[in-house]
Design goal:
3 domains; 10 strands; 49% helix; 512 residues; alpha+beta
């Protein structure tokens, strides 16, 4: 047998070189068999079908395609709730029907209104029953895809049945109250007189009237609120005057032809007006009181979904902004989810501020360097200090605010610092103090003049002794005897003790 060249033998797939650089010139790759390929595809599809069936079986057995269990339970419980509500409603309706029969004169003006209300309430209960029938069908189908529809149906069902029963209950309470009025008619007349006298003597929003004179910018708003209260008093007086004839008849021993409905409606209106005057007048006075207070909210630290803040308030007795009383409190507050991303870096900064002359609802929710809002623009002065050769010369009251808001600040404040702060505010940016001194993570110089990075996270405020002013005026503080701080080259050019009498804190610079 003659020798043969191995290159004449076609290479098996596993023996073929990866680059095919040395394959024989006459090599022809084998042609795939279409029958074998079709069989392989059928086998693959069969395996996938089996897997799909197995997955569907797992889903069905695990109940993953069912309605949530709590929704099915709610649907089942709804039937009992509607049954109880229908029974309660029927009890209220029976009482009202009996009242209309037994006291036709008392409820002559109420019969038509009550009948219409009861019809509407019954219709709401019928709608709730229809909703229940649809929900029972969906619960029986037990499909997760119906979850939203079931939740919506349950909300509508609860709204209808609750509204129906609540309305009927209120009608019954009104009927019971009027029946009680009739049984104790003399007492009711006495109470009506007492209510009228209280309304007539009511002093409408005294604090608001003072604020109208003190804060011209708020005059229009406060006057409108006070005018609404005055109008309510006038309407109450008209009600009292209009009921004079029926009250005179009711005062007789055995009144005949008395319009009880008119009498008791007048009495109810007087009661409602008195309650509303008390509530609304207090609200207006509270709003006016906010004008005499400025406050800063200093962020101390952030912990997950909450933040620790310090609120520093200065309450002034009048719009001269003199003799302010400073107070502080620390608290944890929920953190708005929209602020969580950037809040950590704002520890040590004022995150909200409300100046005197503004309502709390007008607070500035802008992150800003602490205590800089109390500095007057360059070339100007205020009750906290003045500018002297490009340096802010503070009065002791500014020192109090600085100690409460930015105790880390020990260097003088220059015009350049203020301009940087003011420019950032105008641009809508945040300025973190000179050399980022108020930033949470910042370079710090320790006692041996070596730099290190400290994470404040509120820690700075824990390391220092906190000033304790409580609810004290400037004259009660430990800064009273400091005078002008004459030992410092940044002293105020006007000493605190040289200021006019009666302007101890706040300086009495007048309204802003």
């Amino acid at each position: 047998m003659s020798a043969f060249d191995k290159s004449d033998i076609p290479l098996a797939p596993r023996d073929r070189p990866k680059d095919w650089s040395d394959r024989p010139k006459d090599y022809q790759p084998p042609v795939a068999n279409p029958l074998l390929q079709a069989a392989a595809r059928k086998k693959t599809l069969g395996v996938l079908a089996i897997l799909l069936i197995l997955v569907m079986g797992v889903i069905a057995s695990a109940g993953l395609d069912n309605l949530p269990g709590e929704l099915r339970d709610s649907v089942n419980a709804a039937s009992g709730k509607i049954s109880n509500d229908k029974s309660t409603f029927e009890g209220h309706r029976a009482y009202l029907d009996r009242a209309l029969r037994e006291e036709p004169e008392l409820f002559a003006g109420k019969a038509a209104d009550w009948t219409n209300h009861l019809k509407a309430d019954q219709a709401k209960l019928a709608t709730a029953e229809q909703s229940l029938a649809a929900l029972v069908t969906l619960a029986a189908a037990n499909k997760r895809s119906d979850t939203d529809q079931v939740e919506r149906g349950l909300r509508e069902l609860d709204a209808n049945r609750t509204a129906a029963v609540t309305d009927a209950d209120q009608l019954r309470q009104e009927a019971q109250r009027w029946i009680g009025y009739k049984k104790e008619l003399p007492s009711r007349l006495t109470a009506m007189q007492r209510t009228h006298d209280a309304i007539a003597a009511f002093d409408v929003a005294p604090a608001a009237r003072k604020a109208i004179a003190d804060w011209p910018a708020k005059k229009g708003d406060l006057e409108a609120r006070v005018a609404a209260l005055v109008a309510a008093k006038a309407a109450a007086e008209a009600t009292w005057t209009g009921s004079a004839a029926v009250r005179a008849l009711a005062a007789q021993p055995s009144p005949k032809g008395l319009d009880y409905g008119a009498l008791f409606q007048s009495a109810d209106r007087l009661d409602q007006t008195q309650a509303q005057l008390t509530t609304d007048s207090k609200a207006v006075d509270t709003l006016a009181g906010q004008l005499y207070t400025n406050w800063d909210k200093l962020l101390l630290e952030v912990d997950g979904g909450r933040e620790k803040v310090k609120i520093v308030r200065t309450k002034f007795p009048d719009a001269t902004l003199a003799n302010g009383v400073v107070s502080q409190e620390e608290m944890w507050e929920p953190l708005d989810a929209r602020l969580r991303r950037d809040r950590d870096q704002h520890a040590g900064m004022v995150v909200e501020r409300k100046p005197a002359g503004k309502y709390d609802s007008e607070a500035e929710r802008v992150v800003q360097a602490p205590a800089y809002a109390y500095i007057a623009p360059p070339g100007q002065a205020n009750s906290y200090g003045s500018w002297n050769n490009g340096v802010w010369s503070w009065l002791p009251q500014y020192l109090i605010m600085r100690e409460l808001l930015q105790p880390r600040m020990t260097t003088p404040i220059t015009i350049g610092d203020y301009n940087a702060y003011d420019s950032a505010r105008r641009r809508g940016d945040t300025w973190y103090g000179p050399r980022d001194s108020f930033r949470t993570n910042r370079p710090t110089i320790n006692s041996d003049n070596r730099s290190y990075t400290g994470n404040s996270g509120g820690g700075f405020y824990r390391e220092r002794e906190k000033p304790s002013f409580g609810n004290k005026s400037y004259s009660d503080s430990r800064y009273q005897s400091r005078g002008s701080y004459s030992s410092s080259r940044y002293q105020s050019r006007g000493t605190f003790s040289s200021r006019p009498s009666g302007r101890s804190f706040g300086g009495g610079r007048g309204r802003r």
